[in-house]
From TrEMBL:
Phylogenetic classification of the source organism: Bacteria, Pseudomonadati, Bacteroidota, Flavobacteriia, Flavobacteriales
Taxonomic superkingdom: Bacteria
Location of the Transcription factor NusA first KH domain: 202-279
The protein's assembly and partners: Monomer. Binds directly to the core enzyme of the DNA-dependent RNA polymerase and to nascent RNA.
Gene name as annotated: nusA
Protein name: Transcription termination/antitermination protein NusA
Residue stretches making up the Transcription factor NusA N-terminal domain: 6-125
Record localization: Cytoplasm
Family: Belongs to the NusA family.
Species the sequence originates in: Flavobacterium cauense R2A-7
Amino acid sequence: MENIALIESFSEFKDDKLIDRVTLMAILEDVFRNALKKKYGSDDNFDIIINPDKGDMEIWRNRVVVADGEVEDENSEISLSEARKIEPDFEVGEDVSEEVKLIQLGRRAILALRQNLISKIHEHDNTNLYKQFKDLIGDIYTAEVHHVRPKAVILVDDEGNEIVLPKEKQIPSDFFRKGDNVRGIIESVELKGNKPQILMSRTSDKFLEKLFEQEIPEVFDGLITVKKVVRIPGEKAKVAVDSYDDRIDPVGACVGMKGSRIHGIVRELGNENIDVINYTTNTQLYITRALSPAKVSSVKIDEEKKTAEVFLKLEEVSKAIGRGGHNIKLAGLLTGYELDVIREGNIAEEEDDVELTEFSDEIDGWVIDEFAKIGLDTARSVLKQDVADLVRRTDLEEETILDVMRILKNEFEE
């Protein structure tokens, strides 16, 4: 088989792998040099001439002519009689260049060449893939569900690249079927052996930030800046936004008329509750805004300890803490302060109040825990709440809440 025919048979990989001919030729030279080293012990005295335009290459072996019987290294030396078979007027000491046909390497070597070429091209593809997705880290990416596993969803993009969405990087309410399109951010690219593993995340704070960029034109254009995002995926998020243009209301622009702009983002995140607040360098005001929807009476800050005492009226405490403590936790993460709620209220009432744990003989412990999760740990704090609101904010049935309130009322009526 002539060199050009053999190379053309190898070049089928170019079309399959979308690899350019020049790169393919460079890989071919590397592969052939390895084959020459195996057969002759060294490739130092070989010239490989590649013509990428024609898809042809030539291999030339360079040896020095020595007298018959004085050949010490058959790879770099050739006897005079052998040299004169190539060209009758060669003399001792002259250089002989002889073309090596690939078929001379032997059938086994050619098979090994082909296998080595496949390996090198895969290695080249993996390197390019690694670089491509390394540049995409932190960006939103869309891919299709290929199959669903217990610990991960395997996605495939338009180019056939495999992307892994681990279970812990999925929003708790996520449910995927084969063929679904999934959006997330490229969180990391890791080399597993020689193959890159691309990991996607839908729980990252960065995903929500990028959704704001994608869905809200003023954020995309840089008129509004997303200063910080904190999330409890699938439950609640807080986003601090700012604008250098006083004519723009950053919160209004992000939320839209009746929530029209943010609705798509909320839906993408499995109905995650998103609070958008105006960023400010005024720490007291920032903490007050971060604890929305609660109305804060005052804030006392300890800059050294990075803590803040937040004073609220009794009826505002549960709003500040939020269901499962999510609101106060996210407010702390957003502002960078550890927040401590201080109740304000009628002193006589507070002194007359009773801890819920005192009713453990009449109210189940898990029910008391449900109230505690939303900041209600005394009898009066529960009695001040609206029943429908408690049903919404806890995992308790209306009948259970009414029963608890009856028990608590009896305590004060007695």
